[in-house]
Predict the structure.
Amino acid sequence: MLPTCYLLRNCNQFYTGDKAEEFFLLTLNIAREHKLSTDEAYVLNNWGLELFRTGKREDAYKNFKISYDILIDQKFHKASYPLNNMAICEMFKGNFNQAIEFLSEAYYVNQSNYNNLQKFISWYTIK
């Protein structure tokens, strides 16, 4: 079951809509049953991407936040992914200052070019 969890946590790369949700629920249950909190965080983050894509931004944000809360304690450097996604949610709501705070924290936890690009885009959007 654990390889299944690993494979299906990225099901949004292959499925969308109801089928993706079905696989995310299955994977989330596997992760929780086996107490794989890091996998749970990855599933929630990726599911959030699908929710965001389908216009369910509040649900997406909730998933990103839970994912962040798990990862910040367990895989500090991986917490940048849900932070970036939370920043994008905030940008769509017009909360650019909050978005910049999330991107700044993401930059701190994982100093990568992806974070720099997101930060540049947010600054460019505000001006």
The chain has seven helices and no strands. The chain has a mean pLDDT of 84.
